[in-house]
Amino acid sequence: MIRWRKGEVLSVRREWPGAVELDVTLPEGECRALAYPPLVGRPEPGDTVLLNTTALAMGLGTGGYAMVVAVPDRLPEDPEDPEGPGHLVKARYTPLQATVLGADEQDSPYHETLRDADSIEGMPVIVADLHSALPAILCGLYGSRPSAAPRVAYVMLDGGALPGWFSMSAARLREIGWLCGVVTTGQSFGGDVEAVTVHTGLLAARHVLSADVAIVTQGPGNLGTGTRWGFSGVSAGEALNAAAVLGGRPVGALRVSEGDLRERHIGVSHHSLTAYGRVALAPAQVVVPELPGAFGRRVTAQAAELAARHELVSVPVDGLEEMLGQSPVKLSTMGRGLTEDLAGFLASAAAGRHAASLLS
C-alpha cells in the first residue's frame, strides 16, 4: 500500500506558505519531494528524509511527488502547549494525524460566535467540482466588480488533498487579497480557519472571516472511477445542500470540458449531472455559460436535465476570456491550460460573474 524510501535532500526548489518543494536523491535516482514544515519540520540540504513514494511511482498528475514523512535525524520541537493547539484531530488515526484548533470547538475564541450560529445570512456560495475552478471563478467575480471588491473565502472540502498547504493557487490568492481566508473542513487541515464540517466551515466563513461570498471545492486532486457514484465530487451536491439549509444562496458551477478525452466529461461532466441532479436535494441556481456553436448547444441541452430541481441561469461569457488571461495564478485543469480547455474555465468564470450580480 505504501512505497517507502529513504533519501537525501539535495536542494530546495521553491516554497510557499506551509510547503517546501525539494530535490531528493534516492538509490534509483533523483526526484521531486514535498514537505509540510508544520507537520515534519523544514528539511534542509544534506538532511536524510523518510519518504512515501507511492503517488510518484503511480505517476499521479496532482500528487506526483515523493512525500516527506519525517526528517528522522532532526525532529521538530514539541508544541509549547503540551495540551494544544486545539483538540480537533484531523487525518485521524493515520501516522500523521494532526491536532488543530477548530473555530467551532470549546477552546476557540470563536466558539461563542459559532455555538448558536444557524445562518449565513443570504451569502452567495459558489460550489464547483474541481479545485482548478477556484481561480477561474474569482476571475469572473472580480472582473465583474472592478470596484467595491467583496471579501471571498475559500471553503475546502476533503475529497482531494487534505493539507490546504498543497494548493499553491490558494496561497497566492490569499497573498494578493483575492481570498480573505481559507477554511479547511472535515479531514482537511492547514487553512486559516479549521472547521469540523462544511456547515461550520460556511458559518466560519461568514461570521469569523466576514466573507461576502464563499467558494466551495475539493482540494487539489480528486478521485474518480468512471462509475456513476464513485467519485469524490459528489460532495459538490452535499455542499449545495449545506448552503441552502444555512440560509445561503447556493450557486452551482458546472464542470464543462471541450478538451477532455473521456466522453463522460465532454460538455457537461457526468460529475455535475450526478452531484447537482441527484445529490443536491435543495434548489440552487446552476449557471449555464452561453458558449458559442454546436458545443454551446450541447452544454445547454445537457444542463437542461437539471431544470426539474434547480433554476438554470444563462450567463454571457463575453469578456471572460480576457479576464481569465489576467489570472494572477496559473490556470490548469487535468493538465490542460486556458487555451486547451477554454470552455471549462469560461463555465467557472461565468459562475463568478453571476455571483457578482447577487451582491448588493
In short:
With 360 residues, this protein is an alpha/beta fold.
Task: Describe this entry's structure for a reader.
It is a single chain. The chain has 360 residues and is α/β, with parallel strands linked by helices. It has helices at residues 37-40, 54-58, 111-115, 133-143, 168-175, 198-207, 235-245, 270-279, 293-303, 320-325, 342-358, and strands at 4-16, 19-26, 29-35, 48-52, 66-70, 88-90, 98-100, 124-127, 152-157, 181-184, 193-194, 213-218, 249-253, 256-257, 267-268, 285-290, 311-316. It contains eleven helices and 17 strands. The strands form four sheets. An eight-stranded parallel beta sheet has the order 11-10-9-12-8-13-16-17, with helices on both faces. Helix 4 (133-143) packs across helix 11 (342-358) and helix 7 (235-245) packs across helix 8. The protein is globular, with a radius of gyration of 20 Å.
Kindly provide the name of the CATH class of the largest domain: Alpha Beta
The averaged pLDDT comes out at: 94
User: Portion of residues in helices?
Assistant: 25-40%
Q: Total number of β-strand segments?
A: 17
Class computed from helices, strands and strand pairing: alpha/beta
Low-confidence stretches: none
Shape: globular
Q: Secondary-structure element sequence?
A: EEEHEHEEEHEHEHEEHEHEEEHEHEHH
**Range of strand content:** 15-25%
Q: In angstroms, what separates the terminal alpha carbons?
A: 51 Å
* CATH architecture descriptor name of the largest domain: 3-Layer(aba) Sandwich
Number of domains: 2
- Main sheet properties: 8 strands, parallel
Q: What is the CA-atom radius of gyration, in angstroms?
A: 20 Å
Tally of individual helices: 11
- Which strand order do you get reading across the main beta sheet? 11-10-9-12-8-13-16-17
What fold name goes in the CATH topology slot of the largest domain? Rossmann fold
